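REVIEWER CHECKLIST
Item 1: Sequence provided? yes
Item 2: Single chain? yes
Item 3: Sequence as submitted:
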Amino acid sequence: MNAIEVAARVFDTDGKPAANLALRIEAFVLDGNGWTPLQEVRTNGNGAITARIATTGTGHVYAPSVRLVEAGEPAPRVLAEGGMITITSNQRARIVRIDFGEIEQLEETAHTRLGAQGQPATGQHVVAGQPRRGQISAAVMVRAMAASNSAALGAVAQPQLVMARTSEAQRILGADFARPGATAQPDATRPATATLSPEFEVQLRSLRADLSAKDIEIDTTRRRVSGLESSLSEAAAKLAAAEAERARLASETSRFREQIEKQAPINTLARSIASEADTANKSMADEGAAFRIANLSVTLRGAIANDGKNITLANLADLPKGAAAAALQDISFSLIPNRIQPSIPEGSVKTPNILGLTESAARRVLAEAGLRMESAQRPKGAGAGFTVGQAIQQSPAAGGAAVAGSTVIVVFAAP
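Item 4: Structure as written out by the authors:
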């Protein structure tokens, strides 16, 4: 072993770092069968110490045991012993690292270490420190118990209670307990009662307040955890909904891509629609219908090819909404057909329109068309839009085919 590295951090009974505390690092020497000082150190402002002790050339054989000792009587007052040991070695040196961790001073609750049989151990020393617990000082708890129940303190400190702060011990427990090395013997002649000093009452109330605050903190943490679990469940539900929406959009996109492969030339579509409109107009003319397709507007919706010549018509029943439907484009055009004249069979003439003409005028127009007229009369009726003597009806209808020389029956309005 070429060097020993020691680390520790010391706190007082109030849980504050014990700054500028004088300590001594000791090691057990086998050939001397006892403890020997290695180095004197002082804690820094944070109560911490770090030390490195070179052991090369000393001629001693050390046991794997190191302790921290503080000043005070009766000596030695051992703060920590043993520690967490790690050993590193290389070709040049072997280093033993001892970490005592965080240590809490016991001060007035320091006590003589006992052997296995309940008697002071060989190499008697005072236990003046213990591993520190977070948040709550064990020494404060022991002092509070001791102030309210002297038997509790006896159970901790028997067979001998050793005081580090004599004046404070006298004030709390009485002069009989304050002498260094005095044995804590209860007075059987006095009742087992105890009165807390004002300082310990304040500490006890503070401890209870801390415990109550911790209970509140635990309850708050539980509620926070419950809220986080609820938020996690909501997030999981939203994630599942998002996954379902993603699957739906993927399905729509797949159907849309299938339809994109079914392209049609825009020119062919326009000509087919125009041809159907033209055929419809001719049929209506031949049937003597009173109306025609005058203007036809068409809007095609789908995906237009980059060259502008082809379009993929979308099936909107399959794509009612979503990203695929939003990507569709519209193309609009109008069809304006020429006026369609009815086909006139050979040997026939087109019947002229004579509605609104007088009898003489109607006869003249029909004669010019190669047709004869047969007249009839009937009351015009209210709101017919004609006056007495005007033609209000004809047969065959205007624009229809009639055999040359045939008769057209014309009805004139009568009073």
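Item 5: Key structural point noted by reviewer: The two ends are 144 Å apart (CA to CA).
Item 6: Recommendation: ____
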